[in-house]
Specification:
19% helix, 12 strands, 3-stranded antiparallel β-sheet, 4 helices, 3-stranded mixed β-sheet, alpha+beta
């Protein structure tokens, strides 16, 4: 990944602040307003391969048609990442839940180091499962163990489990309980 930093200098004028005497000496404060915008850039060729040999001169940056100055240019290759793992536990995938769990376990093993203290990068992941509800099972962590434990215990929420069991009887009245309807799979809420 390449990072391009844009630094438009808004004002470099010295503006004395309120004079606060220190001993017998007044103190002047220099105020400068500056903004730096970091633009991560990934460049691929026509075949989709990463292009890693670019230099600062290979880029032109404009804002509203006006050229901007690129103040710095760095090539980053070992940045930490944060990844979210969202697993569908709805009724429609109940037959595939074990395969989802195995695939998620493999993904966690590939993405996070076995020893969280060993890697210099601070890679982290979190786990959410969704069906009729969205539930955060594990917040950001670099621990494979925590993620594996939550994946092992993961299952549909109670409302989704009731839907798969069908009508129930309850108490002496033997009333028929209908499964809850509505809601659907909360994919977009999970995202």
């Amino acid at each position: 990944m390449l990072a391009v930093a844009l630094l438009p200098l808004m004002s470099t004028a010295q503006q004395p602040a309120a004079q606060q005497p220190v001993g017998n000496q007044p103190v002047a404060t220099l105020k400068i307003q500056a903004r730096e915008v970091v633009l991560p850039v990934t460049v691929r060729d026509k075949k989709g391969a990463l292009v890693t040999s670019l230099q600062i001169g290979d880029f032109a940056l404009t804002e509203d048609g006006r050229p901007q100055v690129i103040k710095s240019f760095t090539r980053e290759s070992n940045l930490p990442f944060k990844v979210g793992l969202l697993v569908d536990t709805s009724r429609s995938v109940s037959g595939a839940l074990e395969n989802e769990r195995k695939a998620a376990d493999k993904f966690v093993d590939l993405m996070l180091p076995a020893d969280p203290k060993a890697g210099a990068a601070k890679d982290e992941g979190f786990l959410i499962h969704f069906d009729r509800e969205v539930e955060l099972l594990q917040d950001f962590t670099n621990s494979r163990e925590k993620l594996h434990r939550e994946l092992d215990d993961m299952g549909p929420t109670r409302a989704s489990q009731n839907d798969t069991q069908g009508p129930e009887t309850s108490g002496d009245d033997r009333e028929r309980q209908r499964p809850s309807r509505g809601g659907g799979t909360q994919l977009y809420d999970a995202i």
